[in-house]
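Usage

Read records sequentially. Each one opens with the input sequence:
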Amino acid sequence: MSQELDTAAAGSLGGFLRRKPGGEHALPPGTPCANCATPLQGPWCHACGQLGEDFHRSTTKLLMESIEGLFHFDGRLWRTLPDLALKPGQLTRSYLDGHRAPQIPPLRLFLVVLLLVFLVGGLPRDKAPVAASFTRSGNTTTLNHTETRQLADLTPAERAELKKQTARVQVKLGSDRADAGASDWLKQRLDKVIDDPERFYLVLESWGERFAFMMLPLSTLLLAAAFAWRREFFLFDHVIFSLHSLSFLGLAICIVLLNPLGLGGILLLALPVHLFVHLRGVYRTGVVMTLLRMGWLFVGTVIGVAFIMAGLLAVGLNAMG
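and closes with the structure output:
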């Protein structure tokens, strides 16, 4: 997985797992700040803002303190998650109205949830199948299209037959005639995907995190267009709404992937209801206008996700070169 998202999410996680300053490991007043050497006057350096605490202690103790911080958490975790699930409009509206201290910062929440989605998605499970099966008659191998097979499980003879099929692929760019360069580019990379599917899966997973982050600007722009004539709402409002909405969607995806007690299907049905309640609670719109905007968001999201997936596939194929 990409190091950028891991680093950002780890930093965010550390930010809201941190205990209150001034505990048993706080440096005494007058101690030079480790960062700027300014004498400390309290738990934080008044010159550079660094926490005045001694972190030279065992890994076990640091882990226990992090777990303790998670379950205390100043109550923010246990206030934010129930409101995110049951009262999303109130959660976002409270943040926009300035009541921000009691809840987890939306961007921090989004980054950690996004990392969690990819961690859960990376758990061992079947790889994506290829919509093809093979039958043998004597020395002849025939490609069928009625069943599914794992690409990594194909035999050398089956791979060779699949390559023959992909060799017929033609790419047309803005005309009825096939583009030879584009066709050769695609054929070469499809052959490498067939030969080394595991590498292709790893490339898609690595780039998938970066492309998944594009859901935030996509959602923000769709909301900005939907409320273009509502001058009381600004781009910042749409960003906060999107962060909360996408965070709930990410948590729902995690539960669907894990599917404990068969809750996955129920959550999928609850997603439109959650979005409806969230929109009405934040933007104070009527039922009809909320439904119309939900339709706009659905259509725009489908189109946007299609472009994002096409871009991810193109980057993945290009990396196989």
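Summary fields computed downstream for this record:
- The beta strands are 129-130, 133-137, 140-144, 149-150.
- Residues 1-73 form one domain.
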